Amino acid sequence: MNKALRLEIFQRLSKAIPEPETELNYSSTFELLIAVILSAQATDKGVNKATDKLYPVANTAQGIFNLGEAGLKHYIKTIGLFNTKAKNVIKTCEMLVRLYDGEVPRTRVELETLPGVGRKTANVVLNTAFGVPTIAVDTHIFRVSNRTKIAPGKTVLEVEKKLEKFVPKQYKLDAHHLMILHGRYTCIARKPRCGSCVIEDLCPFKEKTIS
Questions:
Q1: How many domains is the chain partitioned into structurally?
Q2: Structural domain includes residue 207
Q3: Domain for residue 100, yes or no?
């Protein structure tokens, strides 16, 4: 795929999705961090249902730490892997209070020292909260990258590195959410909605479902 074709793809996606942003509910960088930790192997809707009840009660590092694991589990028990996530979130909150005065650090290295925060979570926080042009490759972005050949790769890291290299400069900040939303609602895993896809004619995917 050449540079001009990638540019056309992102131009069309940005026109179709004029306000690309996360569908997680949050009102602070800390709330975003916790929501993203909770979203691993879970849906944004499921996380929002939990945090919509949790955040009015505790929405700071100290506040959630004070709940303790048992208290936190009460609010997130409907989310997959909630036992492990509760343990990680409490440890993360303890570190934020002890090392960062309750604030979320702004570098990848610091973010990835927090329990439950890997490269993908760090990328989401850097991009969404701090405006860093990172791309967190989730299942949607991985699928879209390979189907469209924008940045094909066999591993998440390989796809991420290619996206960093190939996404047109003016779309680097928004590419993350443009591709997630496109993958979530149009280029879905089973029976992709190719007939309503704005880049259908540019996409080399061989198993298109046109209806």
A1: 2
A2: no
A3: yes
Shared domain for 139 and 122, answered yes or no, is no
Catalytic residue from among 52, 73, 87, 120: 120
**pLDDT tens, residue by residue, 85-107:** 999 999 999 999 999 999 999 99
- Residues 127 and 135: beta-carbon distance below 8 Å: yes
Closest CA to 127 of 89, 51, 178, 64: 178
The residues, any chain, with a CB within 8 Å of residue 120's CB and separated by 6 or more, are 136, 137, 138, 156
Per the annotation, the verdict on 85 as an active-site residue is no
CA 38 to the chain's CA centroid: 11
Active site residue 91: no
Whole-prediction pTM: 0.93
**What is the SS3 assignment for 2?**
coil
Confidence of residue 44 (pLDDT cuts 50, 70, 90): very high
Based on the domain organization, do 167 and 119 belong to the same domain? no
How many angstroms separate the CA atoms of 158 and 160, rounded?
5
Instruction: Report CA Rg, the chain.
Output: 18
Rounded alpha-carbon distances, angstroms, from residue 10 to 23, 114, 126, 166, 202 = 20, 33, 21, 11, 11
The one catalytic residue in 73, 85, 138, 174 is: 138
Q: Six-digit token pair at 161?
A: 């590195």
